[in-house]
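hi support,

uploading two proteins for the ticket. first:
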Amino acid sequence: MAAKLVLAPEAMADVEDAYNWYEAQRVGLGEDFLGRVEACLQAIVRAPEMHAVIQFGYRRALVRRFPYAVFHEFADDTVTVYCVFHTSKDPEKWRRRLP
């Protein structure tokens, strides 16, 4: 059974910002990014414990083709996504975002 998916408002803002940036680079690239993020989220929901724990029970999944990571937690049959960050950003930024 697939887990329930909850995206924090900040995570949705991360995706929107990245989409806008990619779409400004080339029309259609933002759509490709969204599709890859959606595929990553679906993989997380199907197998929520598949990705390695990186810190205090939080997990990280990498988005294919794009240098982004999805930071999430799995508890009580629910996957909560806290942030979708570019992998070159300072790790302290995503660490501060985790509850």
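and the second one:
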Amino acid sequence: MNGLLIGRFQPFHLGHLDALHFALSKVDNLFVGLGSSNKPLLKNNPFSAEERKKMILSSIDDSIRNKIEICYIPDFEDHKKWVENIDTIIPKFDIVFTNDEMTKYLYSKRGTRVLAIPFTRRDVLSGTNIRDLMISDQPWEEYVPEGTKKFLNEINARERLKNL
């Protein structure tokens, strides 16, 4: 059985890693859709799709790597076109993992099984919180996997965020 997990992963954090593990406990293969892949770098979207892919791949074990495929999901202003476009990008999947109400609605309406992802430490494990910590020079490293931390330091993400 194949699943689909869509997220922005701005940046990829420990909650996202838990979401991957949760989804993979339910399916054989998982398509990881990098949402907003066509958006320019902005304060709330500071990392490109390719950078987010690198964060994920540097943060997972080889045992997971061969069970996932990372795909780029561009945004559309029209929800129907967004879902139709995903159909052209992602091969057949049986279940969508999401906590986003609109995504849940759109796929439920189509008859696709949708499963909510248990949140892990949502009070601190959010991309917004981690970006805010980086901008304000507060500790953030404990909230991301080691591979993501290394990558973000290599690209000097803190300075990028401050300049956006």
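thanks. also noticed: The two ends are 41 Å apart (CA to CA).
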